Amino acid sequence: MDPSRILPSFPAPSYRGTQEQALRDVRDAFAAGNDVVLVRAPTGSGKSLLARSIAGAARTVEEAKPAEATNAYYTTPQVSQLDDVAEDELLSDLQVIRGKRNYTCIINGEEDTPVDRAPCARQKGFDCTVRHRCPYFSDRAIASNRQIAAMTLAYFMQTAGSDVFRKRDVVVIDEAHGLAEWAEMYATIDLNPRTVPVWDDIGVPDVNAADDPVERTVRFAEALTGVCKRAKDELLTKPELTPDEAARRDRLQELRSELKWFVEDYRNPESATTWVVDQPDGEGMQIKPLDPERYLHHTVWDRGNKFALLSATILNKEAFCRGVGLNPDDVALVDVEHTFPVENRPLYDVTRGKMTYEHRDETLPKVARVLVRLMAHHREEKGLVHCHSYAIQSELKRRLARLGLGNRIRAHDRQNRDAELESWKATDDPDVFLSVKMEEALDLKGDLCRWQVICKAPYLNTNDSRVARRLEDGQWPWYRRAALRTVIQACGRVVRAPDDYGATYLADSSLLDLFERTRSDMPAWFREQVDRTTTPDLPEFDPEAAGGRAGTGSGGISRGGTATSARNGRSGGGSSASRSAGSNTDGSRTDAESTGDSDDGRSKHPLSDVWGDG
């Protein structure tokens, strides 16, 4: 790597905000001998352009000796962010490569077949005469020879050990704050009838009843590996497979690899990974790693010489490094200043109590009422509600519809989330989108969204064995940082440029407690936001005024950041410091809010608190 090439590699005609100073600091950090540089850059600082500049400093083929690594990787866990890179003209020299299932075959009669199910994947010795034009193999060949290959983190990790995508000189990981969690997720082995093709051929033990559940799981994994091998070998005797058989073969091989990795890592006395097992229904099970350092070394750290990790929310350098298997003393941190005026990104306290599972039945109706007041306040502006779970989303949608506001409300489910999001973004109507798990990688610049609500403090699910194990070990700071990180990410969805503006409303009083407990971990620019939190002056509760389809006066937040009421009305309550958690300033519930069945009972499921399974 030649750090002096970082600034000349900047792809835009001019710098914006603090980009130039940030790149100078990154250059100096690498020049000082650091192999890993963390770049803490807030939303809107142009991280993709910074990433391109850093990747441009990689050793070239012409400069390298035969055994030396050359060129660079750009990777991100977010598919939508990779899509943005592919569409950005300033990043046209990044060659994007995706997994096989994202490409379709070009052979006559197979045009609707994904490449991983095409004849070349189904027939022995198939000689594809058009392989040179195959969209997947063409992109792969180009990416393998291009100076910067861009891919998702999942594809990057899956290609560890590949002869095509070998070690490179520089690796840039965007949105790197969740690297440890992503690694844990990718290394998790999910065993159930949907993921194990030979499920009916095996007897699943009750590992919870064993003296050592993990050891019992290891023995089961060894037996299952053998069953998978025999089933796969049987398929390989066939000269041609159907698409379903090809999928079965690939899944058997993938499962064998996962299980072998688990067994070898568990048996390895030098591995720092701790394995835990969940078997909630007594049949299916999840095998999960804690702090999978060895996995990360294999899939990430062995893939490059120099690393730049970019994110707005690497909150604690030492804790982050420990979580991904790095020595903090060998890692440099570069802080990029926020250039968005704090007045344009205000936080407002509209808390109505706690949204934990025990208190939600009492608090959620009050949140629905404050949403009505916010819809009247922003009657001509689009809004986003971070519902946190499908249970909360379903209940808010039901209550707002019963109040006659269904025509202004949009929502999504697990299958149509992208389509519904794009439809909402495309409309000019002031619709309100009830979202689940959209706190990251969502660009709602300008009038796409002027206000948003965070319904619940996004704490991780304590029923998850990995979370429970860490809390048993007293890792409460880690637990709170994870929630704070999600909140900061969410706050960045609606303000995307220095001249953009948007309001974020806090509906869960647990958020105020979170801010108090994590103050020392906050970036200075977010701490300033929190310190300026005020209670807005909202209109009275009036569903008709919240309809948003007629009338004059837009309400909402002015360009300077001051909240203005759509009309005179009662204040939303006292200041965050003086109002007790859960106080009801909106009065008692209406008949429409206090009656009616819940959405099929799934909202009672404890996992709905975090993962949205309710």
Automatic annotation (TrEMBL):
Region spans: Disordered: 526-614
Name of a matching Pfam family: DEAD_2
Coiled coil: none
Keywords: ATP-binding, DNA-binding, Helicase, Hydrolase, Nucleotide-binding
Location of the ATP-dependent helicase C-terminal domain: 390-513
Example of a GO MF term: DNA binding
Gene3D superfamilies assigned to the protein according to its UniProt record, in alphabetical order: P-loop containing nucleotide triphosphate hydrolases
Compositionally biased tracts (Gly residues): 548-559
Biased composition (Low complexity): 560-569
The keyword Glycoprotein is assigned to this record: no
Keyword ATP-binding part of the UniProt annotation: yes
Name of the protein: Helicase C-terminal domain-containing protein
Organism: Halopelagius fulvigenes
